[in-house]
Amino acid sequence: MSTPGNTGGQQPSPPTGQTSAQAAGSIRDRLSSPRTSDQASGPGDTRTSDLHENGFQQTDSAAALQGHGRGESQYDSSSPPVATEELAGRKHPLGPEDAKAAERKVAALFLLSFLGVVGFVATFFLVPHEYTSSTRYLYTPLLGTFMALALGGVGAGAVLWAKLLMVDEEAVQERHPFGSDKDERGATAEALKKGLEETGIARRSLLRNTVLLGAGSLALLPVPFLFGLGPYQHKERVLATTAWKKGVRLIRQNGTPVRLGDLSIGSIESVFPDVEHGTKIADSPTLLIRMRPEELQVVEGREDWSIDGHIAYSSVCTHLGCPVKLYEQQTHHLFCPCHQSTFAANDGCKVVFGPAARPLPQLAISLDDEGYFVAQGDYSEAVGPSYWERDT
Amino acid sequence: MSLLSKGTDAGAVWVDDRLGSSNFVRRSLNKVFPDHWSFMLGEIALFTFIILLLTGTYLSFFYTPSLTEVVYDGSYVPLKGVTMSQAYASTLDISFDVRGGLIMRQIHHWAALLFMASIVVHLMRVYFTGAFRKPRELNWIIGVALLVLGIAEGFAGYSLPDDLLSGTGARIAYSIALSIPVVGTWTAFLVFGGEYPGVAILDRLYSAHILLLPGLILGLITFHMMMIWYQKHTQFAGPGRTEDNVVGSRLFPTYAAKAGGFFMLVFAVLAALGGLAQINPIWLYGPYDASQVSAGSQPDWYVGFLDGSTRLMPNWEIAGFGYTVPLNVMIPTVVLPGILFTLLALYPFLEARFTGDRDYHNLLDRPRDVPVRTAIGAMSITFYLVLMIAGGNDVIASVFHLDIISMSWVLRVSLFVLPPVAYFVTKRACLALQRSDDELVHHGIESGTIRRLPNGEFVEETVPLPAVYRIALTGVESDRPQLEGATAHGEEGKPKGPGYGDQHVVEGAPERVPGFFRAKRRSGPSDTSAPRPEAAMPELERSGKPAPPEQ
Ligand code: HEM
Ligand code: FES
């Protein structure tokens, strides 16, 4: 074909339409190094037999395939590739000694893989892995290393085998057209029309309308299941309420109530409603902050919501609900770690920076008879992120 | 050896007797796959998905998706006696008490990160080479669907351990759902089974993560592959490569050996990462607690751009008539990704509409040859990167001791200024690269030999560009002066143009794509600022083309 050495008539000529591929071979031949084209010769080539000995029956099978493919192309829209090394004008690039060396390299990689498996199995069963054992830091890294060797050995071996020892082929395959021809399309459309006619759906308008109604309404069947996934509690306004009620004490995470004087100036405490599971209720965590009374700019109408510089805000960020916890006593800024919204705790928790749109709601607090902090009632507005039905 | 071939024969006969599959199998074994390093990116995505299925199945044997409280009594000493959900406790067990459990967890997480990364880079290669053009638009859309499903799948998985970070992520997702006008509250309640944290979210995330989403992804990947199989892979221009053929190696044995080996290599890298590089150490974060958060917590990288858009958004909110629309949440987390993914999915159709190009394309574009598309791509990547950086603005600010407020402003401005700059610069660069190509094609390679003409003028001799390179650069085989070697292929070898058979525009049809999108190639006089041809050569050599001839 394209290679000077094997233009003899033994090769079946390629199907028409492959001419450009032939040309490819010839460009390649002329451009590739003289050594390659010298040696890419016909069946007499020494390395061909070398190939056979090693079981790579590339040449035979390729030729055979061509024969088959041509015979059957009427069944096969994608004609088989015009193989292979003849077109590419190359055998595999290694001489016999190099090939032996490459074979050894690949074999070494496969061996490495075996060792990796052995190491993995040994580590898996024999090395103590418990947190209390001294080898716990080694266990997982050793597993990983052996596993990587086991998998990588086979992987690198296979890739090298393909690169070094298999024919660097340049096979060419025709694409087949995607669209069908006009007759084909027409026949299909015809078959569809015929089928529809046989149902008589066009004539029987009663059937047509009722089947549309009946089958169409099937689409509604899953909808109730969707509603069943959860409650729709617009009426109960669950989002607008929390667990805080009049007289409920402010407790710490460990359950102890907070008394006036427990907090030093400039400090902050996470507090929860003293109700059942109070520390677990997601919308109720609150921050109790103490600052000098003169530093506090009390919001109008909230004069009696704080006591002696103690002021309480919801710790659920009004942006996306992360817990706001970081307090900077110099600036009185409360800081949300999620998207850096910053609130002025001494000024009604107004937003000074960040994507939050609303101040943190303030919880009105007072003291009970024993001197413990209690809530005067629930928050006067919904805490946390905004939502459609929120009406303040 | 003969035993092996006998066995193969017997096996083939046995199967063929029952399925008559010989013809199909042989055609499959002979299928030709073109070779280019960038075609491996999709393979990495496929392989990591398989690895995710394998490791995930193992994890599911031990994980319990339950919020029921238990007192931890496993071997991790620092948390002994702490009350926590069963989900968190079972994840601790996988990490400390199940043999090989930690490495499985870590491989699974690394594989998820690599999966998303390979999808994104694969998408970029498909975009920049124009592989999405007719007839492959459907595969592009499936690809975008896979990208979105991948993000959802990753998010669901991230939420399962019920540690401090994952609980925070779930709460943010709930709040995002709340922000949708009219149906938001309802949606959030249905998904979570009530007000946050609800009763059901963990079970639902679990069945989504191990059944629903992987099932969808698997189905779509299967479809993706079938379509590639049927339509055959695209290829770059080169000698003998036309719109109507595929040039490469056959599936069996060469391609199969390389791809199989590559799968093992990807798995090996992930095994090494999973064994040696710690990831998501949930025992350090502690169990989820609605009132706790750790500073500087970051989502996995593929959600980072949404985190960034959320951070940069001004704090706008509309309230009135008893209703509230939280624009500060809805725009960056619902509207923006909605627009981005819709545009992404529709891109092939938008481009076709804009250029009027409705032809089949099996030869890939070199990015520089379509400056506008490439520039749009660069613009989008820049936009995405600014958002990603914004997602880590607190970390960056604290590492470099910057003020977070001014940093946010810089990023806000960059988000609108840098993408157009990227567009402009990229387009210029493409045109410059085209010019240097042109130089090579028309004037040849500088030989280094300076000749003095009789009139005293010095000229440098050039060597004509070898045909292989010329074809790779121009995609044209025959309308230019032929090298001696190329003449053999005559008229028949002329690429038939992008069409097939009789239904499409055929040879000699004028270029239908308006100059705005592509083909701004200027064949002007040499421009000294253009890269020297020598600089371009090694790259061509690396791409596996044969060495140029000695002249
Ligand atoms: C689960 C994720 C994905 C997997 C496992 C996957 C896998 C693959 C593989 C193995 C190939 C062939 C090799 C290659 O060209 O790289 C491929 C081709 C392709 N992929 Fe994907 N892919 C994924 C996502 C995507 C995405 C996100 C897009 C684009 C939005 C996309 C669009 C395409 C297209 C158009 C082709 C055909 C390319 C051609 O023939 O040149 N895929 N995919
Ligand atoms: S959740 Fe607080 S800033 Fe976003």
Give the topology.
The complex is a heterodimer of chains A (392) and B (551).
Chain A: H1 19-31, H2 34-39, H3 46-53, H4 58-72, H5 85-88, H6 96-126, H7 136-165, E1 171-174, H8 182-199, H9 205-217, H10 222-227, E2 250-251, E3 268-273, E4 286-290, E5 310-314, E6 326-328, E7 333-335, E8 342-344, E9 350-353, E10 362-363, E11 365-367, E12 373-375
Antiparallel strand pairs in A: 2-3, 3-4, 4-5, 5-10, 6-7, 7-8, 8-9, 11-12
Chain B: H1 2-19, H2 22-29, E1 32-33, H3 40-60, E2 69-71, E3 83-85, H4 86-96, H5 101-128, H6 137-159, H7 164-178, H8 184-192, H9 201-231, E4 245-250, H10 251-276, H11 282-285, H12 304-312, E5 318-320, E6 323-325, H13 327-355, H14 371-391, H15 393-399, H16 404-443, E7 445-452, E8 458-463, H17 467-474, H18 533-542
Helix pairs in contact in B: 3-5, 3-10, 4-5, 5-6, 5-10, 6-9, 6-13, 7-8, 12-13, 12-14, 14-16
The complex binds protoporphyrin IX containing FE and FE2/S2 (inorganic) cluster.
Descriptive tags:
heterodimer, A: five-stranded antiparallel β-sheet, 10 helices, 12 strands, 37% helix, B: 551 residues, mainly alpha, Cytochrome Bc1 Complex, Chain C, two-stranded antiparallel ribbon, 6% strand, binds protoporphyrin IX containing FE, binds FE2/S2 (inorganic) cluster, metal-binding (chain A), 2Fe-2S (chain A)
Précis, in short:
The complex is a heterodimer of chains A (392) and B (551). Chain A has 392 residues and is α+β, with helices and mostly antiparallel strands.
Explain how this protein is built:
The complex is a heterodimer of chains A (392) and B (551). By secondary structure, chain A is an alpha+beta fold. Among the domains of chain A are: 102-174 and 182-233; 250-375, Rieske Iron-sulfur Protein (3-layer Sandwich), CATH 2.102.10.10. In chain A, 37% of the residues lie in helices and 11% in strands. Chain A is built from ten helices and twelve strands. In chain A, the strands form three sheets. Chain A has a five-stranded antiparallel sheet with strand order 2-3-4-5-10, with no helix packed on it. Chain A has a four-stranded antiparallel sheet with strand order 6-7-8-9, with no helix packed on it. Chain A has a two-stranded antiparallel ribbon with strand order 11-12. Chain A is flat. In chain A, 38% of the residues are buried. Chain B is mainly α and 551 residues long. Among the domains of chain B are: 35-301, Cytochrome Bc1 Complex, Chain C (Up-down Bundle); 431-543, no CATH class. Chain B has 18 helices and eight strands. In chain B, strands 1-4 form a two-stranded antiparallel sheet. Chain B has a two-stranded antiparallel sheet with strand order 2-3. In chain B, a hairpin with a 2-residue loop joins strand 5 and strand 6 (323-325). The structure holds protoporphyrin IX containing FE and FE2/S2 (inorganic) cluster. Residues 39, 41-43, 45-46, 49, 119, 122-123, 126, 131-132, 136, 139-140, 143-144, 146-147, 150, 217, 221, 224, 228, 233-234 of chain B line the site of protoporphyrin IX containing FE (HEM).
